[in-house]
Amino acid sequence: MPLALDLKHGDKIIVNGAVIENSGHNTQILVHNDAAILRGKEIMIESSASTPASRAYFALQCAYIFPNVRQNYLAAFDELLVDYIKAAPSARSIGHDIVEKLTNGSLYSALKAARKLVAHEKKLMGDLGIDVTSEGFIPKAMVKADEKPPAKAEHKPEPKIEHKAEPRRPTLRARAAKA
Hints:
Number of domains: 2
Number of strands: 5
Largest sheet: 3 strands, antiparallel
Radius of gyration: 25 Å
Strand content: 5-15%
Strand order of the largest sheet: 3-2-5
Number of helices: 5
Structural class: alpha+beta
Order of helices and strands: EEEEEHHHHH
Helix content: 40-55%
Shape: globular
């Protein structure tokens, strides 16, 4: 069954390492054979792979796109994944899921599962008060020359709300004792 890809004007995809952009109106492409395909939202550029999980994702993405050097990227991915799980043991189940998909030969599914690793890292960093945006998944080529990439959100601490305890009302016993 062919894979149907709907591309809007300006959308880009990578097919077997080649970047393809729709320069016309909405287009539907049918892919009838096996090909390494990534849609724009799935693509991470190297300069955005700046955190441990994003570097692991990027290595796996390269293994998917460039089959002639796949083993090199998979070796790098294995090392990065092990290091990440050592640092964040709560990601162990995500790592097992990725490795299972790789073992079954489903590289695209493993890459999809690796996005959960990046989301896990983002949540952990957010819990620590460190801002990690998802802009790493916006390829530079997809940002028009006259546009700036989305700015990172500035982290502002939430205002402290002080709760003053209301004075306690005398209990029935205390009121009865006074009377």
